[in-house]
Amino acid sequence: MPTTHTVRVHPSADDLPREDQLAWKLAELAADPVDVTPEVTDMVINRVIDNASVAVASLTRAPVVAARAQALSHPYVPGSTVFGSPLTTRTSPEWAAWANGVAVRELDFHDTFLAAEYSHPGDNIPPVLAVAQHAGTSGHDFVRGVATGYEIQVDLARAISLHAHKIDHVAHLGPSAAAGIGTLLGLPAQVIFQAVGQALHTTTATRQSRKGRISTWKAYAPAFAGKVAVEAVDRAMRGQTSPEPIYEGEDGVIAWLLDGPDASYEVMLPDVGEPKTAILDTFTKEHSAEYQAQALIDLARALHAEHPYLADPANVARIVIHTSHHTHYVIGSGANDPQKYDPHASRETLDHSVPYIFTVALQDGGWHHVASYAPERAARPDTVELWQKVTTAEDAEWTRRYHSTDPAEKAFGARVEIELADGGRIVRELAVADAHPLGARPFARADYVRKFRTLADGLVEPEEVERFLDLAQRLPELAAGELRELTVVAAPGVLESVPSPRGLFELGGN
Fold first, then answer.
1. Which residues form the MmgE/PrpD C-terminal domain (predicted)?
2. Same domain, yes or no, for 88 and 181?
3. Which of 90, 103, 186, 414, by CA, is between 20 and 30 Å from 353?
4. Is residue 471 part of a domain?
5. pTM of the prediction?
């Protein structure tokens, strides 16, 4: 059974033993040689396919193009592959983690876990894979490393809220990715401990990256954490140490960035010898939008089918979405961000505007990862008019269900109340998205494969689609040489269709 570890601030005079520090507990978990279960292995394969899907779909988007250009400025042998580039093109592993991390994150379209903190644990895969390819490990070892990354990020997200103190969620990703790499490489706990501490210390940043007019850094933040994790492991392997106790110190993360000197957290971790299964508690996205919007998109498309007249703003007096604290205050009108109602806002901002997302899904009866965010779509006059009539409100019951530890009760949905212009009223609710494990159409392997085929269409040659899917679905059997080919090569002309920006790294020798 999992063990609950009490984590609190200790003054320096306590000289808290290393073995009692949370970072050490995470390192011990990562160093545990326990194997993964078949169910976990299958889900790792699903998420590798899922990540590749959304990475391919973003290959020509500006943040991804820039990150790829940076990575390709650091060629290295044996090195790691970069999404879209030829199999023979290799770059330094930390830069591959960077470029691939941006590609995976750019469309906000991969997996999620929501608890005390929110997270996208699929962000662990790019840094672990980059190191696995560079180091020449097997597919089996890669699966073990990914399972650790998911376990630690999910366990931290269950127990420690970062957003309550306006700290970005990637502060849990730095330690989890470093630990996952430690498992991959079979490093001893004392080395992983130092890497975890360094990764946490260097990935604490404010949530302004997800507030107001959201910038392209939204996609870069988790990629930066993955890159930092690779570098932290490298330093730790060379014998370099980290600040400690990083969580519990009187000048540490808890004391000054989180709940303060009197805080106490209960972090539950698997015991030694117990399988790491947290990936099974995570869920992916059918739609390219913030996860709390998934159920609302599904609800909106159902309303569109049943009441198509709702698409006309003249027929609607107002729409109130009653939902959880998080949805209301982060992506709803409770954020008090006027940008969430701005038809000229960036894609990143619209992705974090549930009033916008619900409006478009209600009018269109669906959601598209490109068309639904297009500037001309956001600025359509009837959309703007209806959008201004949509607000959110916190509902105590939805907040309780959001934080429930009972999987059958935990929900990220809402109740929508629509007041019609003629005085009529429509009330509908949906607790979980259709693709959720408890939803109307839970995602299974066939859905992940279909998502990849759909998003790769026109960007990847059919033979390359089949090559990748064959490798991915044989993941635990792959030898080092095959794992080094676990990437997706873009069709001829795709990468060349967009200009590659020049920066600092291109200045040398010119």
1. 287-475
2. yes
3. 103
4. no
5. 0.92
Confidence of residue 509 (pLDDT cuts 50, 70, 90): low
The verdict on 205 and 127 lying in the same domain is: yes
Residue with tokens 């015991």: 271
Q: In terms of Cα–Cα distance, which of 163, 41, 59, 52 is closest to 110?
A: 52
In angstroms, the CA 313 to CA 207 distance is: 34
CA distance linking residue 236 with residue 206, whole number of Å:
26
Count of CB atoms within 10 A of residue 90's CB? 22
- CA dihedral of residues 435, 436, 442, 446 (deg, nearest 10): 60
Q: Are residues 214 and 316 in the same domain?
A: no
**Amino acid making up residue 368:** H
Q: Residue range 452-477: average pLDDT?
A: 98
Under a CB-based contact definition with an 8 Å cutoff, are residues 338 and 316 in contact?
no
Specify the CATH number for the domain of residue 101: 1.10.4100.10
Residue 333 vs residues 293, 345, 352, 391, 393: alpha-carbon distances, Å: 13, 15, 11, 6, 8
Looking at the structure, tell me whether residues 163 and 44 fall in a common domain.
Answer: yes
Taking the CB of residue 424, how many other CB atoms lie within 10 A of it?
A: 10
pLDDT for the residue 214? 76
Say yes or no to pLDDT of 510 above 60.
no
Q: Where are the alpha helices (DSSP H) in 243-342?
A: 253-257, 294-306, 325-326
Q: Does the residue 38 lie in any domain?
A: yes
- Nearest 5°: the CA angle 289, 295, 300 is 90
Cis peptide before 437 (omega within 30 of 0): no
Containing domain of residue 315, as a range? 291-430
145 and 40 Cβ atoms separated by less than 8 Å: no
